[in-house]
Amino acid sequence: MILILDFGSQYSQLIARKVRSFSVYSQIVPFNTPVAEIRRLKPAGLILSGGPASVSEKGAPRIRREVLDLGVPILGICYGMQLLVHLLGGEVKPQQSSEYGRATLRHDSADPLLIKMPKRDTVWMSHNDAAVRLPKEWKTLASTDGCEQAVVRHSQRPLYGLQFHPEVHHTRHGELILRNFVFNVCHAQADWKLTDYIEHTCSEIRALLEAHPGARIVSATSGGVDSTVLAALLSRAAGDRFVPVFVDNGVLRAGEAETVRRNFREKIGIEVRFIDASEHFLACLAGVTDPEEKRRIIGREFVNVFLKELGPKDYLAQGTLYPDVIESVNVRGPSATIKTHHNRVKEILDLMEQGRVVEPLKELFKDEVRELGAKLGLPREMLWRQPFPGPGLAVRLLGEVTRERLEVLRQADRIVLEEIKAAGLYDKLWQSFAVLLPVKAVGVMGDSRTYANVVAVRAVESVDAMTADFAQLPWDVLGRIASRIINEVRGVNRVVYDISSKPPSTIEWE
Ligand code: XMP
């Protein structure tokens, strides 16, 4: 495996994903991971990530010198390179003006790191500091106009530094450089396979169940990608000792519960244990209009309802993914903090302490989860569903959640999805849905004046939900959506399209 020591870079996950795409396992750990732990993991190579700090700053994040003496090849990227240079006696200084953006890299080197690399190529720079003097025995392999020491290495040992970011897409042959490092310098084996992951995980689960007769594995299933892949995996491992539980929280979309039930039966071959708690949830939500309060209630009641299904001997399975558990590095101090997440509420932490939680997807990125699902035989439509938030329609219905208002929203939302799918746009959009606004507007139908609800349509493009652009849907699709909603949904006389992007707006309206 290739171990990434994280100095707080926003790109560390990108590095790990790139390396895994070469079929080499890669893991991110905080920069201050003890040397003994690094040795135990037996990495074929180390990558020191970039980071926001400056090496000469007091308290800047460091690694111990012993890490450099492990005999493992090291690639320092940006801050990681500056740290190598600094630790080995070279000099790093702030530059007059920081270099940010595309630059042309030139080299004439036959070094294993640069094999097949064009002699002139575009790379992506983003730094304030640079190495102005290399340590003894180091040499320059490549430069840009603004940065003499753009690619550097130790003359004998496999220690390398890159001032630019090979992991970002703007560095044209960044993937080649990482590949060269992984295979030509570290001589890693391309043996990380998801099929092995399936076999390995299944045998672990089987061993757990064998050691605990009478225990079952219970998981919450929503029909979303992660919980569906988790269910397919657990069903293969545990057969009927796996119990997927679907909770109807009263704020689901039209036909959602039936679709999930049918898909599980037909595509995975398991029956979902179905709990209709809609009355209970709607009673808890009565009179509540504050979005965060809606979220809190739904989250709390979900845990209450779901955990009742867990017998005293049972294990809870969660579809937690790798990005949810990577320890985020606090480079301003020595401690590493773990992000809080809905899979880490108190009741679940208590179960974790008792060793009763299994999270078989927690080493995987989302794209790997989809690939795993495909290997388990799940059809495309189950693996490429648009995300749907846990608090469901409650946060798409501004104001109070009532049965009548939910029904209006459900019908409008069904029409949005039908038309988006019919236009072949579903897969191109990150999300597309309807929102019910808490205002009424005047309209005219036949000879009479109406005073009815307004529905907003939201459709966005995004890669990770951190930022999103409103989708430029064709007018005819928007027109069909509007006219169908107004004609088919009782109580709506106006449809508007949301043309705001994130930031500063958010994807959801609440
Ligand atoms: P925003 O509205 O913050 O949404 O731009 C970003 C992404 O997160 C989803 N979302 C949620 N998912 N529970 C969830 O499980 C929530 O409370 C929640 N709020 C937003 C949203 O659908 C979008 O994909």
What would the keywords be for this entry?
Rossmann fold, nine-stranded mixed beta sheet, 3 domains, 16 helices, about 500 residues, about 25% strand, alpha/beta, binds xanthosine-5'-monophosphate
Structural overview:
The structure is a single chain. This protein is of the alpha/beta class. It has 3 domains: 2-185, Class I glutamine amidotransferase (GATase) domain (Rossmann fold, 3-Layer(aba) Sandwich); 194-383, HUPs (Rossmann fold, 3-Layer(aba) Sandwich), CATH 3.40.50; 402-497, GMP Synthetase, Chain A, domain 3 (2-Layer Sandwich). It has 16 helices and 20 strands. The strands form 4 sheets. Strands 2-1-3-4-9-8-7-5-6 form a 9-stranded mixed β-sheet, with helices on both faces. The protein has a 5-stranded parallel β-sheet with strand order 12-11-10-13-16, sandwiched between helices. Strands 17, 18, 19 and 20 form a 4-stranded mixed β-sheet that branches. Helix 1 links the parallel strand 1 and strand 2 (26-30). Helix 7 (225-238) crosses helix 13 (366-375) and helix 15 (403-422) runs antiparallel to helix 16 (475-488). It is globular, with a radius of gyration of 27 Å. Bound molecules: xanthosine-5'-monophosphate. Xanthosine-5'-monophosphate binds next to loops.
